[in-house]
Every structure is written in C-alpha cells, then in structure tokens.
Amino acid sequence: MNLKKWISTIIASIMALVLTLSFAGCGGSSAPKQEANKPVKVSLGMLRLTSSAPLFIAMDKGYFKEVGIEIDPQWFDAAQPIAVATASSKVDVGATGITAGLYNMAAKGQKLFIVADKGREQKGFSSSALMASTAQYDQGLTSIEALKGKRVGLTQKGSTFHYMLGRMLEAKGLTLDDVTIVPLGKLSAVMAALQSGQIDACILNEPNITKVKNEGYGKEITQVSAVMPYQTSGIFYSPEFAKNQDAAVRFMKAYNKACNEYYAAVVEKKDPKQLDEAVKIIAKYVKTPEADIRLGLPYVDANGILMSDDIQTQIDWYTSHGMIEGKLTAKDVVNTSFLEKAMKK
Fold this sequence. Notes:
The protein is an alpha/beta fold.
C-alpha cells in the first residue's frame, strides 16, 4: 500500500507540473510580444529640409528607439529619386514631395503607400515660395502675372515645384506655356542659376527661401500657401515595409509623437524652451544656422494626418496635363491605416 501511495503521489506531481507549464505557455503573451517588439532597422530616404522636422525630432530624441526602430538615414538631393527608391523597396520609408513620377509608378501598378503628412502649404507658415532674382524683382517681376515670358527654374518637370507653378499660373489666368521652364536637377543648381542670372525666377522651399533672401540675390514674390492649400509632401512606405504591419505601426507611433511635439513648439508656441530645442535639432540635421531655421518653420499637422482629399486634386491636375499615363485614384496610393492604428495605441 505504501508503494502504491508513493507512485500515485509522484504521478500527481508530474501532472501538476505539466499543467502549470502548459498554462504558462498559453496564458503568457511574453513570447509573441517579444517578437512583435523585436528591433527593426529601417532605411529612411529624405532631404535636408525643414519639413522633415518631426523625423529629425524623433531621430534625435530617441522616439524611434523607444519603439524598437533603428533608423538608417539615406540622404538624397531631389524628391523623385526617393520615390523611385521607396517604390522599389531600396529604402523602407521615403519622406519627400509627392510628384508626378510617384503617381505614374502607381498608375503602372507599382505599389507605394502615402501614409502621413510631412508638410503642407498653410497660410501664415513659410514652406514654399515663388522667388525672383533681385535684379528681376527690381525691374518689376513682383507678381505671378509678371512671370509671362520669363525663365523659371525647377528641379525637374513633374516635381512638386512644377505643380505649384502650374497651379499658381492658372490662378492668375496664365498657363505653363506662358513661361520657359528650366529643369536643373538639384535645388543647389536652381539657387546657383538664380544667383548667376541664368533664370529669372524659381520656386524654393525652406530653409532655402531664407538663405536666398539673406544672401541678397533673390526676393519673394509670394508664398505658395497664399494662392492654394497643398499637401506638398508625405511619408511613404515601400511595398515590402508595408507588409511588416508591426514595424510599420511602430514607426508611425514614433512619428506621431514627434508631430505632436513639433506642433506644440512651432504652431502653438506653448513653450519658448520647447521651440528653442526644436530649432536646434532641425538646424543640426538641415545644416543651416538656427536663426535661418527660426524664420522659416513650416506647418505640419499635429498628428501627422494626411490631407487625403488633396491627393485626388493633384492626380486630376497631373492627368489633365498629360503627366500621368493610365488611370489612378487617391485610394490606389493613400493608406492611412498605419497612423490610425498607432494613434489608437
């Protein structure tokens, strides 16, 4: 009897241990959670522009690291190459202007997702402006109407600057045929051409607007925001990165936090110290004096929410001007679900 009792006790102990281990494995979410929060290296393509301010803040203050994202910054000289690199998944995330080239890739079946705001034209905030050389301005090139017959420098046709120019001319009863467009590839080349007199006018964004004014070879005709609202640039996800739902949402969580901070500092101006800190961070990444940065801080939505309706307006305009081949709607390229999920968390 004692032997049987001892065997029964051993069996009961083993069963209890098995049950305990089973419940520990099923009930605890630590294993899946660790996998979900696994650090991910994310390549980020961008330009050194003030409209990337929330990204700079998130990078500098460790907000990406907080959510397990390690940023590998990839610096570009123009918008279109970023769109191409993102669409082909050579970079995971792109942050730049929304161009005709991007829409064309999407129209041809290339997957690319515009997921959040990265800068828009908003009255009262210096983002993009039509500039004239000082010599031309002094001779009367002080309005959009006066552009007729002038040479206007752009990075490239189909760029955000091309779109801005066309829309502004049309607002004053002119067309793109009324000016001579001079594509120059890079922003630095556009600025050099304005300084040397090779072009009469151009469209620039911050901090270049302030830089040209301070150096004295260009004057502002008008801010683009004074003529039209415009979702100038966005955050894009590559098709491969978008498949990683967990990392894609985590990236937006960090970005949303930085947008909140940027908005409070720059738009609401709640705390002078917070504004000073933001300016310092932006100047570090843009490589421009803090005084210049302070004069040209653009508007970014408080939560990074995309102005989705304007995407369709852009697609319609580019299509009507023969810059998009094929059919495309905003629904084909806009995906705000990642940001929405991040905000819920």
